[in-house]
Amino acid sequence: MVNQYIEESPQGKLYLRATIRLLDDLEGECSSEDWSSFLHDWAHQIVDVNSIFGSMDIDFEQVLSILEKEFLVCDSSSLWQVAHAILDKQDDRQSALSSSSFDEVFSILRQTIPEKNTQLN
Q1: Element (DSSP H or E) covering residue 79
Q2: 68: which residues sit within 8 A by CB, 6+ positions away?
Q3: What does the alpha-carbon distance between residue 74 and residue 53 come to, in Å, rounded to a whole number?
Q4: pTM exceeding 0.85
Q5: 3-class DSSP assignment, residue 94
Q6: Are the C-beta atoms of 5 and 14 separated by less than 8 Å?
């Protein structure tokens, strides 16, 4: 729809309308060990992507330190921020949004990192 509008009226204004519903709190919680392990895997994935596409030389410890500082606590807010950053497939995002438990969303995130690594190879 957006692309069609851009082609038909490139100088016009596009207004979108949406119904927004706040998500219910997720059931359950995450263990700090699982969260730390996940951040560790994510840091490796970031370094791997950077080594292929990036021009900056970043090391694993630097990336891990940033992630641990940014997402120190494993709570719903951190989980949704990470999900927004990592989940790029519409199906994965929709699955996460329709989940009712922390474990379901966390499981989707855990599956995504190896999938992304496979895409790199």
Answers
A1: helix 76-86
A2: 36, 39
A3: 29
A4: no
A5: helix
A6: yes
Side chain identity, residue 77? S
Distance CA 3, CA 21 (A): 26
| Full DSSP string of 3-69 | HHHHHH-TTS---------PPPPPBS---HHHHHHHHHHHHHHHHHHHHHH-SS---HHHHHHHHHH
Indicate the helix (H) or strand (E) that contains 76: helix 76-86
DSSP category for residue 106: H
Give the start-to-end residue ranges of the domains of the chain.
Answer: 25-120
Any idea which residue has 């995450």 for tokens?
30
CA pair distance 47, 1, nearest whole angstrom: 36
Task: Give the pLDDT confidence of 17-30 residue by residue, as tens digits.
Answer: 788 888 888 999 98
Q: How far apart are the first and last CA of the chain?
A: 34
